[in-house]
Amino acid sequence: MVSRDTPLLSVENLETHFDTAVEPVRAVDGASFTVDPGEVVGLVGESGSGKSVTARSIVGLESPGEIVGGSIRFDGTDLTDVDDRIRRQHRGDRIGMVFQDPTATLNPVFDVGEQIAEALRIHDVDRQRLTDFMHVPFVSDRQAWRDHRERAIELMEQVDIADPGSRAGDYPHEFSGGMAQRAMLAIALAGDPDLLIADEPTTALDTTTQATILERLDSLAATGETAVLLVTHDLGIVAERCDRVVVLYGGQVMESGPTEQVLTAPEHPYTRDLLECLIDDAEPQTRLSTIEGTVPDRFDEIGCPFASRCDYATAACRTSDPPIVDPGPDHRVVCGELETVPDAHVMDGANRSTRSEPTDGHAGSDRPPGNERERRVASASRTGDGTAAILAARNLSKRFETTDSWVDRLRGNRRYLDAVEDVSVSVERGQTLGIVGESGSGKSTVVDMLVGLEAPTSGRVELDGNPVGTVADRSAEQLAKVGVVFQHTRGSINPRATVRDVIAEPLFESGWDADRRTDRVDELLELVDLSPTHADRRRHQLSGGQLQRVAIARALALEPAVVVLDEPVSALDVSNRAKILNLLLDLQEQLGLTYVVVSHDLSVVGHVADEVLVMYAGQVMERGPTETLFDRPSHPYTNALLDAIPSVSGDTPAASLPGSVPSAVDPPSGCRFHMRCPLAEPECRSETPSMEAVDDARSRCHFASEIAADSDDDSEPLEHISPDTFS
Question: Which one of 175, 208, 307, 724 has the largest count of C-beta atoms within 10 Å of its C-beta?
Answer without folding.
Answer: 208
